[in-house]
What does this fold into?
Amino acid sequence: MAARCVTRTLAIVLLAACPLAATRAQDAAALTDPVALAARQVERGEQWFRAACLECHAIGAVSNPDFRLKWGGRSAHDLFDLISRTMPDGNPGALSRGAYLAITAYLMKLNGMPVAATPLPADSTALGGLRLTFPSTPR
Ligand code: HEC
It folds into this structure.
């Protein structure tokens, strides 16, 4: 009786553990795949934007021709720098560097840039070397 009980418990534990193991394997793959990491950075940026920015900026307020005209041709660091120093208005610098970086990636995607092959680099110089090139940006 006790042995059966243990077997059953084990089966339940194994059943519960299997989907978890599969998810971990996917996570592990995502952690090493730069494209997946870049996509995930954009997703996190969207989550952060909804949590910290959407109350004042509708999506359309940060993805429109005026926005693209203003930011197109400037660097990813310029945009990152502005939002991390001045936003959220009233509580600037409240988010982590990673969150601001993710939001920058999200804003780039929102304005028509394809998801990059690698996540945006945290390094300011590298970030400064990335040009914001929207579909409407003059070349
Ligand atoms: C409490 C309101 C408020 C919150 C929250 C807020 N902003 Fe702002 N934001 C403003 C105001 C006010 C301005 C300056 C006026 C403008 O350009 O709309 C501004 C300007 C901006 C600009 C420059 C707009 C442009 O056209 O270049 C960006 C980009 C921006 N905010 C991004 C963000 C991001 C990203 C967040 C979240 C981390 C955020 N804001 C949170 C109020 C807010």
About this structure: Confidence is low (pLDDT under 50) at residues 9-19.
